[in-house]
Amino acid sequence: MLQGIVIKSTGSWYTVQDENGKFWECRLRGKIRLEGIRSTNPIAVGDNVVFEQEAGKETAVIKNMLPRHNLIVRKATRLSKASHIIAANIDQAIVIVTIDFPRTSTGFIDRFLATAEAYHIPSLIVFNKYDLYDATHLGYLNKLMHYYNAIGYESFAVSAATGYNLEKLKTCMTDRTSLLSGHSGVGKSTLINLIEPSLNLKTGEISHIHNKGKHTTTFAEMHLLSDGGRIVDTPGIKEFGLYDLEKETLAQRFPEMRERMSECRYANCTHIHEPDCAVKKAVDEGKIASWRYTNYLNMMSGQDTNENNN
Ligand SMILES: Nc1nc2c(ncn2[C@@H]2O[C@H](COP(=O)(O)OP(=O)(O)O)[C@@H](O)[C@H]2O)c(=O)[nH]1
Ligand SMILES: [Mg+2]
Ligand SMILES: [Zn+2]
């Protein structure tokens, strides 16, 4: 029996890298038990599997899966109860953003962070295209970085063009499995190519026309870094953002609200209209940024959606 990690899945075939670095094309035979989720795909990128070479063949059969420490799922279709597993065993979620060229809104960033919180995955915010910013941009950038750092999200600026802080980004990715997200055009592929030139990803592509409300059947892929890191490239940010954030627990996905909500008068406070709300008080006192609170309200009212929030 061999053991390895699924680095690509295309439906019926799985590419698995074994502990010696060798790649295997594997099929699934028999049933793999799942932890209480009904899923259209039992095994996903990032899963650790036990497999066996087929007699007289170069291919292999997956026999078992090791326990997952987390997984990213979305509904298989809009109305179905079944889930589609995007990736498993993610150590951190990295969102690449640009405050301009193109602009990434804080609404988008905050939805990403809240989603990662819901999956219990730590986040890192990377502001790219530092070389393009003027004094006004830089003032805004510093304000955002300072706030996000203060509430516990590591964030820093990089430039693929000048190489600024690329070593720092590389260090963050070493020996970890990172989910990488961000709008089209922010420089994800350019940054990955600088970190691992052999990957030779296409850059400067025009963003795909996306089908609103329709899930595409594309699969995540894992890129291996020579220093031991792994990058999970999802086919667009959309999958990650489609996670249904529950309104009942949304405030818990905002660390600066989470730490204050026990002081609200009502245990079930929504932090919107209730009296003696510790969250609203902190907003009034400037301890919680009003733009973070606005993004929270937009998510609560459903005005924030993945489609219009960019
Ligand atoms: N000036 C500048 N341009 C960048 C930087 N990073 C990426 N770009 C450019 O931004 C465009 C989109 O980059 P790409 O990597 O394809 O973005 P992706 O869609 O996120 O993968 C390309 O034309 C890149 O050359 C940067 O740090 N500074
Ligand atoms: Mg790209
Ligand atoms: Zn409250």
What does it look like?
The protein is of the alpha/beta class. The protein has three domains: 2-69, Beta Barrel (OB fold (Dihydrolipoamide Acetyltransferase, E2P)); 90-241, Rossmann fold, CATH 3.40.50.300; 247-301, Probable gtpase engc, domain 3 (Ribonucleotide Reductase Protein R1, domain 1, Orthogonal Bundle). It is 23% helix and 23% strand. It has eight helices and 13 strands. The strands form three sheets. It has a six-stranded mixed sheet, covered by helices on one side. Strands 1-2-3-5-4 form a five-stranded mixed β-barrel. α1 crosses α8. The N and C termini lie far apart (47 Å). Residues 261, 264, 269, 271, 274, 277-279 line the site of zinc ion.
Please supply descriptive tags for the structure shown above.
OB fold (Dihydrolipoamide Acetyltransferase, E2P), 23% helix, Rossmann fold, Ribonucleotide Reductase Protein R1, domain 1, six-stranded mixed beta sheet, 310 residues, binds magnesium ion, alpha/beta, binds zinc ion
Write a concise synopsis of the structure shown.
With 310 residues, this protein is an alpha/beta fold. It contains eight helices and 13 strands.
Secondary structure blueprint with pairings:
Elements: E1 2-9, E2 13-18, E3 23-28, E4 48-53, E5 60-65, E6 71-75, E7 83-88, E8 92-97, H1 106-118, E9 123-127, H2 135-150, E10 154-157, H3 166-173, E11 177-181, H4 188-195, E12 221-224, E13 230-233, H5 238-241, H6 255-258, H7 278-284, H8 290-301
Parallel strand pairs: 3-5, 8-9, 8-11, 9-10, 11-13
Antiparallel strand pairs: 1-2, 1-4, 2-3, 4-5, 6-7, 12-13
Helix pairs in contact: 1-8
